[in-house]
Amino acid sequence: MDIRFLGGAREVGRSAILVNDSLLLDFGMLTANPPQFPVETPDPEAVVVSHGHLDHVGTVPALLSGDSRPPIHWTPPTYELTLTLARDTLNLHGGSFHCPFTETDVERVTQVSETHGYREPFDAAGHEVTFFNAGHIPGSAHVLIDDGETRLLYTGDFHTDDQRLVSGTTARPDADIVLCESTYSDVEHEDRSSVEERFAESVETTLWEGGTVVVPAFAIGRTQEMLLVCAAHDIPCYVDGMGKQVTEMLRQYPEFVRDADALSRAISRARFVTGRNGQRKRITDQKAAIITTSGMLSGGPAMTYIPEIRANPTNKITMTGYQVEGTPGRELLETGSAEIDGRMMPISAQVEQYDFSAHADRDGILEFLESYRDSELLINHGDRCVAFAEELRADGFDASAPEIGETVTVSG
Hints:
- By secondary structure, this protein is of the alpha/beta class.
- Helix content is 29%, strand content 21%.
């Protein structure tokens, strides 16, 4: 089996792996400025997508810009999320950078899509492929690929612990090679229930003191997780941004969330913002949590809310996800100011950060890999892939960290 790395090797973003020159796993983008795409656009016989985050699906429509129409295999939520992200990319970035695909390409995605549930084997480019629940976001999958001689397990992004939205992965299918993500290979997450308690207590204190809390959250996964957290702790909340659309879509796929009834109850308790007639400005006077995109303050309705609440030290901004270097969210955490709509704004409101990560931490990754002591490990999707592979070798694993552009040949 030949495994060629076109992106996502020794980096987080633009994941793209070509298997046996015929089967493409993921085709993402790295949201830098300007964005970065996989180092080449292959012409695969079929495409398999692990989950619906931009760094894994962001460039998928570009595969259909030529004459080829390879089938694209994914779970139903991943298909829906890819279309949502593609249309958003066209809207947001059409002017600021050369988008590698067009509306026509996005329309073609709908024509070649083939959806599958977990543990339902299917054929793609002459390989037998099976999805397993990866516990990251709804629809996220470990991808098991069997070419008749070698079995490759591509972990995609995964979490071993339960979140309110999705259950942690329990799947450990037999594999000769494991291509494993390592985003948090040097981090230990605080216990999720402790993080949640601290968050709820902090928000409740602010609301009791008469303040407002802005909760910047990624639209996919994190918005719904925070919605469930607020419902569980009886915190009044509004939901704004792309997360509204994603939340409504996920209601159609109850089998891909941990507790569909809990999600329905949380949705019915929350208030969804339309943004009409100055509604956002009025909401900033309410004693409530406002869950809104963007998670790193680089756009979205957060740009309206933060200028409104920034001057009052009773108010709070609670960051719920990792803040990439160079984003306004990271700037705010480090300096107490942020560039909002081109203006540097000092923020007097309190700023806090909580780790609601949807990735396995070091212990989770090691626990997962313990099932694969006899397999060859390829480490990718991380900022310290080489170091982590060395640590695994020291522990007796056969592990390496391929580079972008490299082809690894392995046999079962």
